[in-house]
């Protein structure tokens, strides 16, 4: 059975690329904002991993991750944060809650797949 990945991004080209790269190996759920994603999670959905864009309207990736990581229920879901920001390191350092991985856009599809595999194997070891 394929693992489920929640993708949170409002950029159509990135969504198409992620779908092309990942849909063969994973079930993808796509939400266009952090608000939609939180709402979907609160319906009882439990993805194996979340990929989120940093820059989104209304509820950016940083706020989204903060809300996930302070929640008792979602805090253990690994998160990959995508950003086109040139200085991703300073963005990461300034976040109050951290993602498990930060990947710069445009990204190398193979590097993203390798990071997903690594995080899923780590989270599987820590799950009950």
SSE inventory with pairings:
Elements: E1 3-8, H1 12-22, E2 26-31, H2 34-42, E3 49-53, H3 61-70, E4 79-83, H4 88-94, E5 101-104, H5 109-126
Parallel strand pairs: 1-2, 1-3, 3-4, 4-5
Describe the structure.
- With 128 residues, the protein is an alpha/beta fold.
- It has a single domain, classed as 3-Layer(aba) Sandwich (Rossmann fold).
- It is built from five helices and five strands, in the order βαβαβαβαβα.
- Strands 2-1-3-4-5 form a five-stranded parallel beta sheet, with helices on both faces.
- β3, α3 and β4 form a beta-alpha-beta unit.
- The longest helix is centred in the C-terminal third of the chain and has 18 residues.
- It holds the Pfam family Response_reg.
- Keywords: Phosphoprotein.
């Amino acid at each position: 059975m394929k693992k489920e990945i929640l993708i949170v991004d409002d950029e159509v080209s990135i969504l198409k690329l992620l779908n092309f790269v990942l849909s063969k190996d994973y079930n993808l759920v796509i939400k266009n904002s952090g608000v939609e994603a939180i709402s979907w999670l609160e319906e009882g959905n439990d993805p194996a991993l979340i990929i989120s864009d940093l820059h989104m309207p209304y509820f950016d990736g940083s706020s989204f991750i903060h809300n996930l990581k302070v929640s008792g229920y979602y805090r253990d879901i690994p998160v990959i944060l995508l950003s086109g920001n040139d200085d991703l390191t300073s963005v990461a350092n300034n976040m109050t809650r951290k993602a498990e991985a930060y990947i710069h856009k445009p990204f190398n599809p193979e590097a993203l797949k390798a990071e997903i595999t690594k995080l899923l194997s780590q989270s599987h070891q820590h799950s009950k």
